[in-house]
Every structure is written in C-alpha cells, then in structure tokens.
Design brief:
It comes from Phytoactinopolyspora alkaliphila. Keywords: NADP, Oxidoreductase. It holds the Pfam family Aldo_ket_red. One of its GO terms (molecular function) is oxidoreductase activity. By secondary structure, this protein is α/β, with parallel strands linked by helices. It has one domain: TIM Barrel, CATH 3.20.20. The chain has twelve helices and ten strands. The strands form two sheets. Strands 3-4-5-6-7-8-9-10 form an eight-stranded parallel barrel, surrounded by five helices. Strands 1-2 form a two-stranded antiparallel ribbon. Helix 5 links the parallel strand 7 and strand 8. Helix 4 crosses helix 5. It is globular. The mean pLDDT is about 90.
Length: about 325
C-alpha cells in the first residue's frame, strides 16, 4: 500500500480507501461486510470512508463494529453530514449549526469512537449561510470530535469561499470528495485548479463507475446475474444509465488490451487511472466480497506510462463528460 498526504496537511491516508456506500447495512449481510473490512486491513488499507446517510446510519454502525478492536490511532475514519439519516423534520438535513452538531454526535455514537479523522460536508447547503456552516465545523474541530474537515461535490467557487473562511477560523479544510473516473472528468478544468491553489486534495468516489469499468457489462447483452446492475438495493439505478449505450460499452472492451499491457485487470486500470492525477490523494473502493478488495488494491503504487494514458483518451474520445457546471447540480436547493 502507498500513502499520500491529504491536502496541505500532515495527515497520511492510504491511496486506496475503503468505502461502504450502498454495501454495508443494505446490500450485503454483516458477516460479509466484516470480511471485506478485514480484507482491507490485511491489504494495508488504513482509511475508511462512510456517511451518516448510508443505509440510514446502519453503514456507520457496521463499520464501527468491524473496526472494533483495531488500534484507533492506526486507522483513519471519515464520515459526512448533510442528508437526512433517520428523521424527516426541516432540521434533519443541511449544514446548519444544529444539524452539524447533532449529526457528529450521532455519527460518533454509531461508529463507537470519540472522534473522526475527517468530517465532511456531503453537499453544499444553499439554505444556510456559509459562515454558520464553517463556524459549526470549527466548533466540532475545537471540541476534538474531528481532526480535519472536508467537503464533497462542491464547486470551485464554493471550495474557495469555504477555504477562505476555514483559514480565518484557523481550522484545516483539506479535502473534496467528488465523483471522478475515466469517463467523468468534470472536476479537471475548474475544481482541481481551485483545490491545488487552496491545498485541498481529492478523495474520489466511483473510480470503477459502480462496476461498469470492470468490463463485465457487454454491448447488446443483459447484465450478468448477481451484478450490481441487477440489484435494486445495490445501486442498479445509478449504473443503468451507462448500460444503454452500446458504443460506450464497446469502448470499455477496447481498454482491455491496454490493461493487459500494463499487467492489470480493467478494474485495476480504472483505479490506477484516477491515481495518476497528482491532486488525487485516494480512490475509494467498495466491495461486497473480500476478493474484490484484494483485486482492487493491486492498483496501489502503479504508474501508467504517458502513451497508455494517451491511448485511453483516444479510445474514450467524445464519450468523456467534462462539463464543470455539472457539479453545481449535485447540491439540492431546499424549500
């Protein structure tokens, strides 16, 4: 396993990070979830990412139990706040002082820990003054409940504004967690330069596009039985949008010889690809079976040659989404 500094901080995290969105508390049974966490630890992964909204809090509980008995100082635990995680009242969402303080206390209880290493704003809150949000995060850090703060799916302008306030409040905002993979590069032209200026790293989710980049989905064929595309509890609605494009699926198959040339599987190539971006500190992988963890961690420490990166671009061509304005649509505007 390789380790990278998170933002302009002294915190080192494993460049392959284990995340339990979709899987823990919903898609897989707890025994399987625990086995996946053990496989991650055995592979050298020290960084674990979750959120209070995943499976309405159950994902945090499962992760907390899975990490129980580990030396707390030897792992990095990340979680997030924004979406409702149980209640349905007007204050059960967003980034108000009330929701942040209640959210972090609930997350710590579910995770069975006194603090998280990174506490993240899961989206930008258009309904709450940014000053209130950042002051509440500063209070969380000063109370020792989080060591660092981060954001997820914020635009370049939002990151700049949040980082400026964090500097005034003298709290470390060091990360952004966006979707980023070979065909989804909306952060490259706008968000990444803003983060480089601010000393903020990317912790990217969906590097394998929910399994689409594994090559298991073939043009003109039904999804394999037991795959994520057939599991309505496992993100089928998310991946389905890509599976109707036979041209795209055919181009993914054309990546296979490039992966073999690098001595990698398609999944490993996908994870290694996002790690070539110097602003990316970690790629988040999920798993429903321990073998998936063992496969994906082999992307750690891989350097892809420039000619290989160019060949990937030539194959994917106009299928790549680069529009930076897409990020702004990720954060809802509440009434």
């Amino acid at each position: 396993m390789e380790f990278r500094a998170l933002g302009r901080s002294g915190l080192k995290i494993s460049e392959i990070t284990y995340g339990n969105w979709i899987t823990h508390g919903s898609q897989v049974e707890e025994d399987a979830a625990q086995a996946c966490v053990r496989a991650a630890l055995d592979a050298g992964i020290t960084t674990f990412d979750t959120a209070d909204v995943y499976a309405a809090g159950r994902a945090e509980e499962v992760l907390g139990r899975a990490l129980a008995g580990q030396r707390r100082e030897s792992v990095e635990i990340f979680t997030k706040v924004f979406w409702p995680s149980g209640g349905s009242g007007p204050n059960d969402r967003g980034l108000s002082r009330k929701h942040i303080h209640e959210g972090v206390n609930a997350s710590l209880r579910r995770l069975g820990t006194d603090y998280v290493d990174l506490y993240q704003a899961h989206r930008f809150d258009h309904s709450t003054p940014l000053e209130e949000t950042m002051e509440a995060f500063a209070d969380v850090v000063r109370a020792g409940k989080a060591l660092y703060i981060g954001v997820s799916e914020w635009t370049a302008e939002q990151i700049r504004a949040g980082h400026a306030l964090a500097r005034e409040l003298r709290v470390p905002l060091i990360s952004n967690q966006p979707e980023y993979w070979m065909l989804w590069r909306v952060i490259e032209s706008d968000v990444v330069p803003a983060c480089e200026e601010a000393g903020v790293s990317q912790i990217v989710w969906s590097p394998i596009a929910q399994g689409m980049l594994t090559g298991k989905y073939l043009p003109g064929q039904a999804p394999p039985a037991g795959s994520r595309a057939t599991d309505n509890n496992g993100g089928a609605g998310i991946i389905r949008r890509w599976l109707d494009d036979d041209d795209l699926l055919e181009r993914v198959q054309r990546l296979r010889p490039l992966a073999e040339q690098a001595g990698l599987t398609l999944a490993q190539l996908a994870v290694a690809w996002v790690l070539q971006n110097p602003n990316v500190a970690a790629a988040i992988i999920g798993a429903s079976r321990p073998e998936q963890v063992a496969e994906n961690v082999k992307a750690a420490g891989v350097t892809l040659e420039p000619h290989l990166m160019k060949a990937i671009d030539e194959i994917l061509g106009d299928k790549v989404e680069r529009d930076p304005s897409v990020t702004a649509t990720r954060s809802p505007v509440f009434d």
